[in-house]
């Protein structure tokens, strides 16, 4: 600060202008960073909920497995006494429930894998803003009109592709979120 204050007035003004320009140039990156941080915070919350749900499911499956092993021990004992048909039906019912739960857990896992892929594509979509800024700078420069026009067309095509990907990923993410909430 002392070095800045010791400079002549026009030097200080130049420095202030440079600092302001630097701050303005950093705003899009900070906005993108804020959006990404919010997205990651939401994802962390959802993953914690899923982890809790999965832990409960595992505990339940462990309990069912313990019960099944206990029932199988009883089957061995009842074979000697002749009461194995009722135990067999209990075991079949437990097997059916366990298979349903395994299917449910596998389905949740697949949904989270799809969500993870869509989140990665969403982050790549954040670079759309950078591409738009590149187009604007290119249009402003107009130093080589033909080359600039070609470059703008390429960037516009990339923007449209990113936009389409972003919209489809948003729809997928919304479908995933409604499936996970239900």
From TrEMBL:
Its main location: cytoplasm. It comes from the Eukaryota. It is found in: Cytoplasm. Residues 99-127 form the TSG101 and ALIX binding domain. GO terms for cellular component: cytoplasm. Transmembrane segments: none annotated. This is TSG101 and ALIX binding domain-containing protein. It comes from Macaca nemestrina.
